[in-house]
Amino acid sequence: MLKRRQLLTGGAIGAAGLVAGCECGVPAGGALPGALKQRELKMVTTWPKDFPGLGTMPERVAQFITEMSGGAMTVRVFAAGELVSAFESFDAVSNGAADMYHGAEYYWVGKSPAFNFFTAVPFGMTISEIMAWTEFGGGQELWDELSARFNIKPIAAGNSGHQLGGWFKKEINSLEDMRGLKMRMPGLGGEVLRRIGASAVAIPGGEIYPALQSGAIDATEWVGPWNDLAFGFYQEAKYYYWPGFHEPGSQLACGINLDLWNELTATEKSIITGACQRANNISIAEFTHHNAIALEQLLEEHGVQLRQMPADVMDALAAASKTVLEEAAATDDITNRIYQSFRESLVRSMEWSRISDEAYMAARRKAFSL
């Protein structure tokens, strides 16, 4: 009994010592020595305010930061256009006008084509594959190196999953139907469209529907059934094509001003990183769940015509994608290194996916007679 009491007493003293030395936030009973500093951060986003999934994702990151810091760190979220426009978010964080942004890295292609690889590239990585590369395949280190050139620290903070081929006002029956087509598609996917004869336009999400309605564009991609339903694209374009080629697993990001990041304590950095990772995981489940429900609604309630993209179109897109990615890689040293790392990780993942997910899904359809 004596040894047991001594052990318990020693454990209690040890635990108390750990708590006293921990920067663990502001507890309800008052601040501990070394408690977190009170901070109010400004986050700008590339998304419409309160938009399902995309617009609520940064709000979730902000909520988690506050909860995990015990209220010491609060984040005020500004939707696209409230403080700066969607495409000005990067510069606002880079120069310190805002503390953080939430957006898609391929929006910053004007800064470097290498940013594309950290969101999605044509015929690139799925959700699990891009997470594997970012977390374990050297992707994060390269991403840090690239973003540091612009005074930003990046962290994955969401994924909207596989994006479909898009909404079209007219049927696509062959490659010829793509010639001259005006379609909203940013990033390297837009460049691939240009290579097959289409005309690609990069505009923020909030401007897509008016452009489709006015005839400024003939087709658009956005995210997937859940977000596409929310924007009401089916009212202007009835043909919904699959599969998508441009974004098989779109990783979204939180970028933090690097000067601010370097000032943060290890605990504060862990809180922000943990909040982003938590939001990232939840977004995957959220989009998977809601996309399935929204697809049923689009087909059964709104008369949407689901179409498979013709084989000659997909073949042309695949060939053009290879060329576009290789040309992007040749831009400069860091883009080439990022491309090579991305490609090596993807090739490894493809073989594993072939005998695991792909084989299983094919067998599962037979089991359920689908």
UniProtKB/TrEMBL annotation:
Protein name: ABC transporter substrate-binding protein
GO molecular function: metal ion binding
Recorded superkingdom: Bacteria
Database matches in PANTHER family: EXTRACYTOPLASMIC SOLUTE RECEPTOR PROTEIN, PTHR33376
GO cellular component: tripartite ATP-independent periplasmic transporter complex
CDD domains in the record: PBP2_TRAP_ketoacid_lactate_like
Binding site for Na(+): W222
Keyword Nucleus attached: no
An annotated GO BP: transmembrane transport
NCBIfam families: TRAP_S1
Keyword set, alphabetical order: Metal-binding, Signal
Binding site residues for substrate: Q163, R184, E221, E247
Gene3D superfamilies, per database record: Bacterial extracellular solute-binding protein, family 7 (3.40.190.170), Periplasmic binding protein-like II (3.40.190.10)
